[in-house]
Input
Amino acid sequence: MLAFPDWQDHGIDVVEHCQVPRLEADLRSLQPGVPLPPHAPAAALPCLPGFAQALGALYVLKGSMMGGEVILRHLLAAGIDGVAVASRFLGAGRAQAGGHWQAFRACLDHYGAAAPEDASMVVAGAEESFRSVGEWMQSTRWREM
Output
């Protein structure tokens, strides 16, 4: 996803959407001293041959960030141990309230207006992202981690 220079042209800082550091920090908070699971292998990542597909994948990532915020609210309300000190990953959706989601939607709208013929590729990128994550999570490797 980082390979596409188009992000800058659309005012999107794609690096800010990387959730790995937040997730790893939360896992370390919840289980100090326990080794972190390995990252997904390259073969498990979605195939994103163009910017349109990467835009669809980022849509999925942004949606998961906003969904994480809903999950976090429920966990905090339920008083689940450790959640308050390990909320960097699920709480990442708070940034969406500051206009990030609106900026991304504006980017999608602008891209869609400028390249309507790419709409199916944006959708394909989102679908490929969901498919890849689903397959990886159902794989034997994931369950053994």
